[in-house]
Each structure stands twice: as C-alpha cells, then as structure tokens.
Amino acid sequence: MKHATAAAKFVANDERSHWHDKALWFVRSKRDRMVNSVPEWELLRDTASAIKAYTMSHMAELLEQFEENATKLGATVHWAKDAAEHNEIVRGLLRDHDVKKLVKSKSMLTEECHLNPFLEKHDIEVTDTDLGEWLVQLRKETPSHIVMPAIHIKKEEVGELFHRVLGTDEGASDPPYLAEAARTALRQKFMEADAGLTGVNFAIADTGGIVVCTNEGNADLGVSLPKLHIASMGIEKLIPQAQHLGVFLRLLARSATGQPITTYSSHFHGPRPGGELHIILVDNGRSKLLASEEFHRSLNCIRCGACMNTCPVYRRSGGHSYGTTVPGPIGSILAPSRDAKEHSTLPYACSLCGSCTDVCPVKIDLHHQLLTWRKEIAALGYVPLDKSVPMKFASAVFRRPWLYRLAGRVARNVVPWLPRFMLYNPLNVWGRRRELPEFPRESFQQAYARRQKTSGKGNVR
Amino acid sequence: MSSRDTILQAIRKSQRETTPMPTLDQDWLRFDAPIEQFTTVLESVGGRCIRVGSPSEINDRLAEFPQFESANVRASTIEGLGQPTVSLDTIDDPHNVENVDFAVLSGEFAVAENGAVWVTDETLKHRVLHFITQHLALVVPAKNVVNNMHEAYKRLSFEGQRFGTFISGPSKTADIEQSLVIGAHGPRSHVVFLVGDES
Questions:
Q1: Segments of A36-157 assigned E as strands
Q2: B51 pairs with which residues across the strands?
Q3: How far apart are CA B37 and CA A453, in angstroms?
Q4: Using CA of residue B42, residue B44, residue B48, residue B50, what is the dihedral sign?
Q5: Exposed end of chain B (fewer CB within 10 Å): N or C?
Q6: Above pLDDT 70, what percent of chain A?
Q7: Distance in angstroms between the alpha carbons of the first and the last residue of chain B
Q8: C-alpha to C-alpha distance for B195 and A141, rounded to whole angstroms
C-alpha cells in the first residue's frame, strides 16, 4: 500500500495524530537534554561512525573471529541466509529441547523474520515479554516503533485490553496499575518458560560475547531461568572490540529515550553453567546491502529510533503507515533495498528536512540516502503516474522560457476564473488538503521591470 | 555450500574499502566529584546512593528501609550483611529464588556519568537474583567509581565464561503512553551503598 494511503487512515483522526506527534516530540526533547550534557557528543558520533565503517570493511574476518571466540566460550553459532532458515534453526532447537513455551525479549530481527506466527503454527506458545511488545502481540498487531513498540496505543485502550485479557478493573487506565497487572501475568510466563530468546544489541568479535540492553529486565529474566538461551542477530550488530562498547553504550540510550544508559546492559560470554547458548547470525539481505555503493551505510544503524522520534512525517503518520518492520527514515532506506517496487513510496514520505541525519548517533546520511532512493525508484520506473506526469510536464515547461512565460500568463488570467471542480478534483492530488494561493496579477519579471522603472523615485531596495 | 560459506563469500565479494580503526584515546568527560555525579544521576533514574564509612553501617541503614524490614525472604552474598533468611548456595534451581523480597549483592564498580554499577555472577550462583528480587541493594567500594564508560571498559577483561551487566536504577517501563513506571519486571527499588574512602 502507498504510504500516503496508509497514513491517511491515521491522520483522519486529527486528535490522535497530534497526540502521537507530541508523545514522540517529548522523547526527542529528552534526547536533546541528555545529549547536551555530553560535551564530546560529536566526537562520540564520529568515533562510532568510524568504528562501524571499519567493521563493514572487515566484516568477514570479524564474523569468523566472533564465531571462533564465542565457540571457545561454549556457545553454539548458527548461520542463516534468510528468514526462513533462521526460523527453521529456532524451531529445530526448540524441538531438540522439547520446548513448548518460549519467552522472547524485544527483537526486531524476529519481527523481520515473522518468527512468532511461524512458531505458533508449530504449536509453540510464544510470549513477547517487553511490555510494549506484549501489548501489540495481544492486539495482534506489529510494533509501530522499534524502541517503543506501543507508542500508538492509548492507556484507555491498554485498560480495555487488560480488562478483557487479565481481568483488570473495567475502565481502569492508570499506567502503574496496568503495568503491575502485566508484571504479575508475565512473571508467571517467565517461571513457566522452557527457553528464552533475545535479540542482540552488540556482538563483540574480540571476546565472542553478546550484549543485550533493556530497561525492564525482561531479557535477563527470560534467559536466566530456563537452560536454553537463543540469541538472534543480524550480522551488522558486530563490533570489533569490547572497548568499543564504551562508545556505543554512551550513544544508544541517550539517542533512543534520553536516558544516560539503559537500566540493564547485559554481557553474555558463553552459556551459564549447565545451560546452553545458541547464537544465530542472520544475513537476510544484509550482505546484498553491504554491496550497495549508495546504501551500505544504512547497515551502521544501531536501532535507537532517534530518526523516527524527530521525523515530522513519522510523528504525524504513525509507524504502521510504513508497512515495514522498521518504519521511519531508516526503514524507508532499508525497505526499498529488499523490494523497491513494494516500498517505492517510502522515500517520498520525507520532507528532506534532514533532522534524522542530525540526530543519528552513527552519522548515517539518512536524508541523502532517501533522496538517492528517489532517483533509483524513478530510474526503475516505479514512480506513480500522479507524480511522474506532473514532473515531466514541469520539466518540459521549465526547460523552455517562452513556454514558462506563456504558462504563467495563462495561469494568472485563467485559473482565478475557473470553477472549483475543475481545480480541486481527483486528478489534483496536491489540492486534497491544500488551497491554491491567490494568483498575482503580474509575473515576477513584470513586477521587477516596473520597480526598476520607478526605483529612481521610490525607496526600493 | 553451507549457509556459513555462502554468507561469508557474499560478504567478501561486497566488503567495503578498508578504513582505519579510530582511536579511543581521547580526552573523555571527567567529573570533579565523581561520587556526587553518580549519586545525582542514579537518583534521576529512580535509584538511591548512600555513602557509608564501613560495611557494618550498611545493616543500620538497611533497617531504615520499610521494604527491607517487611521482607519475608532476604538473600545476601556478603558475609554479615542483609540478614539473609535463605542460603543461596543450597538452592539448585534458579526458579526457587523467585520469592526473594530483598537481595544484598556486591557490585564491582560504579560509573559516574550514568549511575550504572557493574555486577557479575562470579560470587553468585544464580545470576537471575539481580533481576527477580523485589528490591535490590548493591554494595560497591567507594574507591571504585569511574568517570565514564571508557574507563569502565578499561577495567573489564572478559576472559572465560562469565555474565556481567551494568545496572542503572530499578527496572522500569514507559510503554504505556510514555508514563514512567518503576518496577516493570525486576526490582521495584534499587539502592547502592558506596563503602569506605574515595581513594
């Protein structure tokens, strides 16, 4: 579906659209306060960007080094070309360990692989334990934001949902009360789980360890009770050395939610005594993206979500309007790399304001890449007629000064007299939510010439 | 060809041009009074920091906490502290520490810039205790407060199997309308005792 069509549904509710906008701007403001308290912020960004560039230029060796070190620590490393292979590996592990109930902490990768529906088809009970992700799971939705999956849901809706599912008081919408109900219910899930699955924020090549960051502590609870810990990661989560975490952990939470660091930043080096740790390295299009001259830098993303929080389009149109696992500016670069035709409208869901580029902690040139995508999409012929025809028309006019002057004269003299239906009709997409400006009586050139003539007398500057 | 080889081959084919590794040897943020900074930041994330001269003072200060006094099940990994009611080493299944109300555990060092304390499972049989207890107290030597995360990683070596985590404040969530709730899945309160002299 076109982004604009999907967004239209969201913005139809004006009050909710503004509420959503404000909620995200609140997070963006918290980020600004936190960032301003770190004098070397720009140095941190430069360093992070350079570490990522180094990683991308040594990806194969670093992955091998990570595998070797993780294996030495007693972890098992698996490789998955694509989502299907990843899901099969998970299912195989769960089958071998006779797992019926799995607790998951937030992992955008497993969302990307559509792991939940796959496992449910194979009779495994999957519980997403991050509160926000559990909310969207119970509502049979997908996360609308990569850090705040339930940012689109109102507390009254959570109250209704919990009343239905958990039997909380009808009409109760107090966040502490609702969070307490979730705590009780999810603690039961943690206690009953046969295995825990987490995503990975960083994988360290020189130690073979993985780092998982949460505020709720759900990842740690999920993998410290049962014996089996499965960690799924995209290959781009790799960093060369443990000391680089100093840079990334300083950037991540400050950029994401305006916290100095997440509550828990857990470093897993091998399984715990008597347990098993399986790490699945997933490609699923990443090596192809690495090969792209224009878009490979989007692999540097550490998934903080800062570009979404600041994006004027995302804030007003909601994460679901993008129709992708990762929405917002970074999602609009990643998604067309997978399927340019399917996601051809996403690079246009952007005003090119550049705010995303300014806040990105690893200095991805997001708005430049979005502009480049537009060029690619035009070259591929995926620009819809309502955009491409007016563009061709405008191009033809602008290349011919005489035609431009003629068109201007016609517009000035004819348009003001046209009946509304001829101007505001289904063909005029632009006019759907906008009014034309009042047409001047003379062109700029005419006005300029007139002023030049009178400038001797008047005080024209 | 295995998926491993397919992936590595694809990466080798498309690997980016070599760029140099940046240096981490920089003039990173330092504080005139790291302990005060740690205390302020920890409070801002919902935790509390208490300075004590000696470990024996900790028991007196703990007694001031209603959640400690009312705790039915207490656990501690530090000799003589926290009036434990259970002996952690006799528990085999981590599920059996779920009923712990108050745990007193040791932390290796604290980070001034973000209120975090580094903890490991070196002296703790069930690492889950850090996350499953209703209330958590960490005991850290006051001389072990570093300025920033770069100094923190200089202290860490990661050799061999080990679990370690930075904990900054109590468990929390803001997933319902960005409204902060303390005590999401893990501890509902978090106190750090900094013990002894600064240097």
A1: 76-80, 101-104, 125-128
A2: B194
A3: 68
A4: positive
A5: C
A6: 99
A7: 58
A8: 49
Which among B12, B173, B186 has the least Cβ separation from residue A131? B173
> Which residue does chain A place closest to B18, by CA atoms?
A57
SS3 content of chain B, % helix, strand, coil (to 5): 25, 25, 50
With a CB cutoff of 8 Å and minimum separation 6, the contacts of A461 are none
Q: Which of B4, B15, B45 sits opposite A79 (nearest CB)?
A: B4
A184 burial level (CB within 10 Å; 0-12, 13-18, 19+): exposed
Banded model confidence at residue B160, pLDDT cuts 50, 70, 90: confident
Q: Which amino acid is at A401?
A: P
Q: How many helices (H) and strands (E) does chain B have?
A: 6, 11
pTM above 0.90?
yes
Cβ atoms < 10 Å from Cβ of A451 = 11
pLDDT digits 0-9 by tens, A425-456: 888 878 887 888 888 889 998 999 999 888 75
> What is the pLDDT averaged over residues B128-145?
98
Distance CA B45, CA B64 (A): 21
Query: Comparing C-alpha atoms, which of B85, B157, B154, B145 is closest to residue B120?
Result: B157
A214 exposure class (CB count in 10 Å sphere: 0-12, 13-18, 19+): buried
Kindly list the residues from chain B whose CB atom is less than 8 angstroms away from the CB atom of residue A149.
175
Q: From residue B173, give the alpha-carbon distance in Å to each of A150, A271, A310.
A: 12, 27, 21
Q: Report d(CA B63, CA B97) in Å as an integer.
A: 22
- Which of B105, B116, B196, B118 lies closest to B163, judged by CA? B118
- Over its C-alpha atoms, chain A yields an Rg (Å, rounded) of 26
Asked if A272 contacts A115 with a C-beta cutoff of 8 angstroms, the reply is no
Distance from CA of A405 to the nearest CA of B (A): 49
Q: Judge contact between B22 and A46, C-beta under 8 A.
A: yes
Backbone angles phi, psi at B151, to 5 degrees: -65, -35
